[in-house]
């Protein structure tokens, strides 16, 4: 296994590209489990290639992969991945390795990979089954997809709208941890596929509704920019009060530790503020005096979601402070009320606001933003063990 790591570092992308082609040719129904946009961009293939290489490289130290495996099992559970999917994936992954690597993938290496994959599959199946069991045995819980109705819709900014979802069956809602997400499934007619997307829950776990706040992903201005988000645009254009959507139970391990009373620093960029809103709303709901610093960066006031709500929370709760950065300031923006600093988020400028004794740090936003903030926190002396990040879609913080 270790000897194959160097080969996979060179040919990994070719292997996983061939793997996906084989998988979808033989099992087209599995396309409904995958994000088509990530498939088309190559991001999913890149992420899987890195995962396969990392597994081979750490075969004698699998504990190092624990956090990544935990994140994957949470995403799998939200998509309804089942034990019978694993042999199918294993078959086509090994076949793709043989097709690409040829004689280098001899019988000995194939047997090693088959055993190693079987071991990993067993671990992940067990973890996912435990997640399913926990959801089905808790009050209001379920597995698979449940039909929800939009009870209310609120435009939070020019780009972000909140959808208040209640079960169509009239049943109760499960408790969830602030910071968790749900998967939402929509049929995309031009693809002929059901497409799942994960959205953070953006409210406290009070049992009245599940709220998700979705950014409309518009197309870029030039040919090299990313295309418009199919599902986010469908949600904005077609999902109104009284509409219905299929939703998974809440999952995710990027969660606020409610057992602690030490300070919390929430650092977000753009729509990455949604799990932070859930965390702050939960602290407020718990009626404690736990100190919270809410640090947010966005492009301008026009896309600054939850601004008035956050102003009210900070005004009413002395334990809550906030700092806002706008990349571009409009003439009508009022410094000190709408924003505090112009330009990109620079934690060194606000070190007194974020370097709180015994604090835990939660970071969410676009991947480059999170890398920059994690590096900045470490440079300020924050121990990595106190920093948590949320990664949606593909990619990691390696």
Automatic annotation (TrEMBL):
Per its UniProt record, what InterPro entries does this chain match? FAD-bd_FR_type, FNR_nucleotide-bd, Globin, Globin-like_sf, Globin/Proto, OxRdtase_FAD/NAD-bd, Riboflavin_synthase-like_b-brl
Keyword list (alphabetical) reads: Detoxification, FAD, Flavoprotein, Heme, Iron, Metal-binding, NAD, NADP, Oxidoreductase, Oxygen transport, Transport
Q: Name one GO biological process term.
A: response to toxic substance
Needed cofactors: heme b; FAD
Instruction: Show where the FAD-binding FR-type domain sits.
Output: 143-257
Enzyme Commission number, as recorded: 1.14.12.17
Q: Which Pfam families is this protein grouped with?
A: Globin, NAD_binding_1
Give GO terms: molecular function aspect only: FAD binding; heme binding; metal ion binding; nitric oxide dioxygenase NAD(P)H activity; oxygen binding; oxygen carrier activity
Enzyme class at the top of the EC tree: oxidoreductase
Metal-binding in keyword set: yes
Q: Which part of the chain is the Globin domain?
A: 1-129
Q: What is the recorded function of this protein according to its Swiss-Prot or TrEMBL entry?
A: Is involved in NO detoxification in an aerobic process, termed nitric oxide dioxygenase (NOD) reaction that utilizes O(2) and NAD(P)H to convert NO to nitrate, which protects the bacterium from various noxious nitrogen compounds. Therefore, plays a central role in the inducible response to nitrosative stress.
Indicate the family of this protein. In the C-terminal section; belongs to the flavoprotein pyridine nucleotide cytochrome reductase family. Belongs to the globin family. Two-domain flavohemoproteins subfamily.
Q: This protein is called what?
A: Flavohemoprotein
């Amino acid at each position: 296994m270790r000897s194959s790591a160097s080969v996979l570092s060179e040919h990994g992308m070719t292997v996983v590209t061939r793997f996906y082609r084989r998988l979808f040719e033989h099992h087209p129904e599995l396309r409904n489990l995958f994000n088509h946009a990530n498939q088309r961009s190559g991001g999913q293939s890149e992420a899987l290639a890195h995962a396969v290489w990392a597994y081979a490289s750490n075969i004698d130290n699998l504990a190092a992969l624990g956090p990544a495996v935990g994140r994957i099992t949470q995403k799998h559970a939200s998509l309804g991945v089942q034990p019978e999917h694993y042999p199918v994936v294993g078959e086509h992954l090994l076949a793709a390795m043989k097709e690409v690597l040829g004689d280098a993938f001899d019988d000995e290496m194939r047997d090693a990979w088959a055993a190693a994959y079987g071991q990993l599959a067993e671990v992940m199946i067990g973890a996912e089954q435990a997640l399913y069991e926990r959801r089905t045995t808790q009050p209001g819980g379920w597995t698979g997809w449940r039909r929800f109705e939009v009870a209310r819709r609120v435009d939070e900014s020019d780009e972000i709208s909140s959808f208040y979802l209640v079960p169509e069956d009239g049943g109760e809602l499960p408790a969830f941890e602030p910071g968790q997400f749900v998967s939402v499934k929509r049929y995309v007619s031009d693809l002929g596929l059901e497409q799942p997307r994960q959205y953070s829950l953006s409210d406290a776990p009070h049992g009245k509704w599940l709220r998700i706040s979705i950014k409309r992903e518009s197309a870029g201005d030039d040919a090299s920019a990313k295309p418009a988000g199919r599902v986010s645009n469908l949600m904005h254009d077609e999902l109104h009060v009284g509409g219905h959507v299929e939703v998974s139970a809440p999952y995710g391990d990027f969660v606020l530790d409610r057992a602690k009373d030490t300070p919390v620093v929430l650092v977000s960029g753009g729509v990455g503020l949604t799990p932070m809103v859930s965390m702050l709303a939960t602290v407020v709901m718990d009626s404690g005096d736990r100190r919270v610093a809410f640090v947010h960066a966005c492009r301008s006031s026009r896309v600054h979601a939850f601004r008035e709500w956050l102003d009210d929370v900070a005004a009413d709760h002395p334990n809550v402070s906030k700092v806002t950065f706008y990349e571009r300031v409009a003439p009508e923006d009022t410094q000190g009320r709408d924003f505090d600093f112009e330009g990109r988020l620079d934690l060194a400028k606000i070190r007194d606001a974020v370097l709180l004794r015994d604090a835990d740090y939660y970071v969410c936003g676009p991947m480059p933003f999170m890398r920059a903030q994690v590096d900045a926190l470490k440079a300020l002396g924050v121990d990595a063990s106190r920093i948590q990040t949320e990664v949606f879609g593909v990619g990691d913080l390696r």
